[in-house]
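Board notes (copied after class):
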Amino acid sequence: MGADTGVRPVKVTVLGGGVAGLAAAFELSDPRHGGRFQVTLHQLGWRLGGKCASGRDLDTALRTKEHGPHIFFGFYDNAFAVLREAYTALAADPARVFPTIEDALVAHNSLATMEQQDDGSWLPWVIDLPTLPGRPGDGLPQPQAQALDALMGIIERNATELVAQQAPGPNALHSALIFSTLATVKLQADALIKASPEGREAGTAPFAHGLKQLQGAIQAARPGLAGQSVSWRRLKILADLAIATAIGMALDNLIWPTRQSVAAANEFEYRAWLLRHGALSETANSAIVRAMYDTVFAYPGGDVNVPGNVEAGSAVLTQKGLISYRGAPSYKMRTGTGDVTAAPLYQVLVQRGVTVNFFHRVDELIPAADGTIESIRIGVQATANPGGYQPLINVKGVPAWPDRPLYNQLVQGDALREGHIDLESFWTPWVDPVPPIILSRSAGDFDAVVLAIPVGALGNLATKLTQPSWLAMLAGSSTVRTQSVQVWLNRDTGWSTGAAPVVTGYDRASIDTWLDASEVIPFEDWPAPAPVHMAILCGPLVQLGAAPPPSDHAFPGAEAAVVANGGQQFLNAAAPLWPALTSANGFDWSALTAPATSSGPLRFQAQYWGAAINPGDRYVLTLVGSSKTRLQPGASGYANLYLAGDWTDYGLNLGCFEGAVMSGLMAANAITGDPRPILRNPFDES
């Protein structure tokens, strides 16, 4: 923890080892703080990573079992920066398979969604994107100006292509109008980007006016050649979407946003906001817009048949990041998400002297009369044998998390194994083997607390926190259950539009997204012949009524059966995605990697599926107006309590890995007084 200066370090207790808790602990233990902070992290169960945790199947080929599909986007600057530092800190080990974070990722250069046609059929809509200069994590100068410049590039490309496909002859004058208006708008955008903060206000109104003229011209355009209907319509939607977004950014002060301007935009649902700024109904309800809703599970109650709900301001801030990426637009993992992210962070934390306590379930926060957190009650799920608990296993040189506790390291290992106990389940029948631990501030156990437990679980453990702002935050938060299915295939899917896709928007049912995660197979341990493809499927999971009490131990199994049934239904309807595997007669079950003794649909039983139904596993929604009740990481309402998670008011306010990292760093900054810069902070143009 640094040199002994005779000054007692500040004791910080981090509750929760998801991405936000790891980021907070990583920053608090940064050597530049000179050992000022003594950090202890408490985590339920046997692994770290939260919603991004993964586990290696100890029964089958050490295959990767995920909570769901995870990718990094090329604007995840804080995530890349933290992980790059972690990998650098571990680089001295010559045995590391992935010396850098870039080695652990695979660049992905396309955006794909499924689009239903008028005749009911489904066609892929794939947008190929270039690799851009720079790399995420290095800091982007003037990110808001860069986003405007990128948006203008999208408008120009799609408008130009639209004109190229417009009917010749009578439309020549109309094409000239589009080009001339586009040229004017480009000049206005360039002037805005170069203007001083004082000069931006004067230039915004003419820019918005020019955009509206361009919008009218684009919307009046008509296709030329027969047979261009699909490509033409998609170009028009993309141009119209980009122009409406630019108009809204200009009129609602979202080019260089303030908290006030984002809050005002957040009073509108995103589709309504697009329509308010002139987008065609066809655009607002298009597959490309629907894909955004699917990506953030924006369906209250998990029902994809009801309109989605997401704040416009938060959606636009995130879209600005998406279009101003550096390097590739997105990155996939070469092995499990937890192996790529949580494992190296854990190793660095241990290297720095951070204490990580596994099998510690946070049960209650108890405040004092002076507005601080006085004590924390922690249930001890299991105790380690002499020598402590070492959580990682080695899989082909990769430090990895197992999919269950390493029973031989635990006093209660045999009982846990024989009872098939899931220590991460809210509905577990397991009874703690020892009395709870009570941490006390007045006894010197901690000075500050970082609460990095997801908001869905806070209602159960923070019932004694009654500050009005805290209660408003809980009342204003919403979460949704999700589901995922993983299948390992022994042949190709037949997808022909680009390689190894990430596809969303296949909204025939609640499982609507497919990630080709085949990159992980070489880092699993299959006997020959190994699978050729691994697919992760996901979507929201409908909730009918309130969740049962913890005593209903059968509930997780029943919900898992629902997911399994939905997964099989997806496979039987996957022909538009997987034409080589699914026909009018349904899915070819022999394509699944499974024991030779199984046949037909029974081969599905050898795959993996899960229902994210635990309070802490549910995805955080960003419903209209919900950001106004969120709390900033350094403003919990309790003097020594700091908040970390993508459920806080961290700026973008959509659920994502980057948001969790940003929030964790912000919580740490509020404690240290020596703040680490938050990259791409939407309210800081520096």
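Comment from the instructor: Residues 141-325 form one domain. The radius of gyration is 26 Å.
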